[in-house]
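Please produce the structure of this protein holding 1,3-dihydroxyacetonephosphate.
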Amino acid sequence: MDDIRSVAAALVESPKGILAADESSPTLTKRFDALSIASTPETRLAWREMLFSTPNLSQWIAGVILYDETFRQRTSEGTLIPEFLAARGMMPGIKVDTGAKPLAGTRGELVTEGLDGLGPRLEAYRAEGARFAKWRAVLTIGEGRPSRQCVHANAHALARYASLCQEHGIVPIVEPEVLMEGDHSLERCAEVTRVVLDAVFAELREFNVDFRAMVLKPSMVVPGVLADPVGVDEVAAASVAVYRDAVPASVAGIALLSGGQSDATATAHLAAMNRIGSLPWPITFSFGRALQDEPMRVWRGDARNAEAAQAALARLAAANSQATENR
Ligand code: 13P
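Below is the modeled complex.
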């Protein structure tokens, strides 16, 4: 257990965070399509190899979450990606859920699947170098949403996943994401996030998950995208208040998702949370879009833009790193 506890601590320790480069192939294809970049296994590898080769990336990034396709690919020099990352001082992680699927008995809500056969998959990933894993649940806010059934089914699955990970020597990143879509208020998001986190931690306890050997990846407490925005400090205060109520102090750390916020906004929120100070756990970043959108716009599938794209990633990673240091 001590080994996974130290891996969990290292993933969230300031001044570092996590790069979430684990978009499934269909999701990455959508992002590529928007920029007219062809999406093939080769172009997806080129994109990720370019990102991971950014000079000094490990100064700011402790671990990188991979999708299965990337986990099995080799760099142009012939090195397996997980080994390439480890050699550059970054821990390889793996997304192990198989996506959010319709949850029967609800009106169109989703439950994240992937528990079948998960034990043997984790064993294989661990043998191939994965030190941590990720499972993302999605909850939407709306009339009668999220339903009790949806909250419970997702919390239950997250806890079974987390427990299995720890049994296999892998740190679980537990990601219950409350989506920003809708016109709900900051207060409503706070209420829902609290209910969701309470349910998640009740289930994690039920399945004897060691909190010191896990990382929580929550959404920030923000108003819906269709509602009036609120100030950065208001988001930070509301988020930290909810986490304080719901997240046990023994949890190794909190690594936030960006959820569709602009990179500058996500970084400003992270910095404001850390400025509050005297937090029981480190709060860092595990951003996908807020670290990669700008580099992807710069790269556009053209190797001649690689250096400029790497510079964009380095700038964003360094800014988020700095945002963890205000404690
Ligand atoms: P975003 O930061 O783009 O929300 O992605 C984080 C992530 O890993 C979602 O599962």
